[in-house]
Amino acid sequence: MEDLFSQSPNDPAGRIAFLSKELDRHNRLYYTEAQPEISDAEYDVLFRELEDLEKAHPDLADPNSPTQRVGGEPLEGFQQRQHLIPMLSIDDVFKEEEVKLFFRRLQKNLNTERISLTVEPKIDGVAVTLIYRNGKLDYAATRGDGSRGDDVTANVRTIRSLPLTLGDTAPALLEIRGEVYMPNAEFAKLNEQRDEQGLPTFANPRNSTAGTLKQLDPKAVAERPLAVLAHGLGAHEGIKFDTEDDFHALLDRYEIPRNKPVWHVDTLDGVLKTIRELDQLRHDLPYQTDGAVIKVSSFAKRTTLGATSRAPRWAAAFKYPPEQKTTLLRDISVQVGRTGILTPVAELEPVPLSGTTVSRATLHNESFIQERDIRLDDTVLVHKAGEIIPEILSVDTTKRPSGSKPFSLHDHLGGKCPACSAPIELRKNAVKKDGEDYLVLTWWCGNFECPAQAVTRMKHFAQRKALDLDGLGESVAVKLVESAMARSPLDLFELTEETLADLLLEPAKLQSGEESKPRRFGEKKAAGLLSSLQKARTEQPLSKWIFAMGIPHVGESSSKELSRLHEQLTDLADSDTLKTIREITILESEQREISPRNKDNPPKDDEEKEERQAAFTQLKERIAALNDSLTSKKISPDVGPVASASVLAFFASEAGQHVLQRLTKLNINPRSDNYFPDPSSAGADAPFAGKTFVITGTLSGGRDDFKSLIEKNGGKVTGSVSKNTSYVLAGEGGGSKRDKAEKLGVEILDEEGLTKLLS
Question: pTM of this prediction?
Answer without folding.
Answer: 0.55
